[in-house]
């Protein structure tokens, strides 16, 4: 309990035989029932007040934009084997499967059926129509799965001979091209009071109406991120061709929600810049207290 959060994350990674755990994190509901990330620097006891009543989940925190580069990114600094990279893809594939089931990863019917067909191939092997339909009747990968059953079976037929590792690879190939891949929506309002959702990705900050992306601010455009109480502020770099104000303001449900989103934005910016830096890979960036972050 006195140990910092990193000790627990390292223990989970060791249990899973993961040499590098930077892509992952531990999330849990705080005392206000807000889902937050376990801070790796702070003592666990100061974050989880009643550990016997809290479920801590190991999940993907930073989604790789191109999983085909995992081999290069991981082996260049850790001398990992191809088998180790397959383990990472397996865990990313599990996260995609969970996001699909929970309605986070929304997509059209064809993409959904193709995703599920790769999951089915990984779980039960080669196509057998009777076995497929029996399996789909017992296992729900999507809330409205029944209407997609014929498409799923049709796609699964084309995957004969595909190994579980190859299925994970193909699943991620489909998933990474979807707009909602790795996206976690955070409810907010703009200055006019219109309900929107904010999200952060490897490229920058995204703005959604419902599940439709209506705007994006890549990291190169962002000069500073800050929050004041429940106001989330994005200060943009000067651009004579832009019609946007110098500082964008969004209203979130409360200070805790705002701070949580601000922090994950800063972490995303820092994490994905690591792969742009010269090797050897620098140590993970850890953050001190504060309510603003200025980009270089």
TrEMBL record:
A Gene Ontology molecular-function term?
guanyl-nucleotide exchange factor activity
Q: Which UniProt keywords apply?
A: Membrane
Signal sequence segment: none
Show where the FERM domain sits. Answer: 1-276
Record's subcellular location: Membrane
**Coiled-coil region list:** none
On the tree of life, the source organism's domain of life is Eukaryota
Q: Does the keyword Heme apply?
A: no
Which coarse location class applies to the principal site listed for this UniProt protein?
membrane
Q: Which PROSITE patterns match?
A: FERM_1, FERM_3
Q: Name one Pfam family in it.
A: FERM_M
Gene3D superfamilies the UniProt entry points to:
1.20.80.10, Phosphatidylinositol 3-kinase Catalytic Subunit, Chain A, domain 1 (3.10.20.90), Pleckstrin-homology domain (PH domain)/Phosphotyrosine-binding domain (PTB) (2.30.29.30)
**Family matches, as PANTHER family:** FERM DOMAIN CONTAINING PROTEIN, FERM, ARHGEF AND PLECKSTRIN DOMAIN-CONTAINING PROTEIN 1
Q: What is this protein called?
A: FERM domain-containing protein
Taxonomy of the source species = Eukaryota, Metazoa, Chordata, Craniata, Vertebrata
């Amino acid at each position: 309990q006195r140990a910092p959060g990193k000790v627990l994350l390292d223990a989970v990674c060791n249990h899973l035989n993961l040499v590098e755990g930077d892509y992952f994190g531990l999330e849990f509901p705080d005392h206000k029932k807000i889902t937050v990330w376990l801070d790796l620097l702070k003592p666990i006891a100061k974050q989880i007040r009643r550990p016997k009543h809290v479920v801590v989940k190991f999940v993907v925190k930073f989604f790789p934009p191109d999983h085909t580069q995992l081999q290069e990114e991981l082996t260049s600094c850790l001398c990992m084997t191809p088998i180790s990279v397959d383990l990472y893809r397996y865990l990313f594939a599990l996260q995609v499967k969970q996001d699909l089931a929970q309605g986070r990863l929304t997509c059209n019917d064809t993409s959904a059926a193709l995703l599920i067909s790769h999951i089915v191939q990984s779980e039960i092997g080669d196509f057998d129509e009777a076995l497929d339909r029996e399996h789909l009747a017992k296992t729900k990968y999507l809330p409205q799965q029944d209407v997609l059953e014929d498409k799923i079976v049709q796609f699964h037929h084309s995957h004969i001979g595909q190994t579980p590792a190859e299925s994970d690879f193909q699943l991620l190939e489909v998933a990474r091209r979807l707009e909602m891949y790795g996206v976690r929506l955070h409810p907010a309002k703009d200055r006019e009071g219109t309900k929107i959702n904010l999200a952060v990705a490897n490229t920058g900050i995204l703005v959604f109406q419902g599940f439709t992306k209506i705007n994006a601010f890549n990291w190169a455009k962002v000069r500073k991120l800050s929050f004041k109480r429940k106001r989330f502020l994005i200060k943009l770099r000067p651009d004579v061709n832009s019609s946007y104000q110098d500082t964008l303001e969004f209203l979130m449900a409360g200070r805790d929600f705002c701070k949580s989103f601000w922090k994950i934005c800063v972490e995303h910016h820092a994490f994905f810049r690591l792969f742009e830096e010269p090797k050897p890979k620098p140590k993970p960036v850890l953050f001190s207290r504060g309510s603003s972050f200025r980009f270089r």
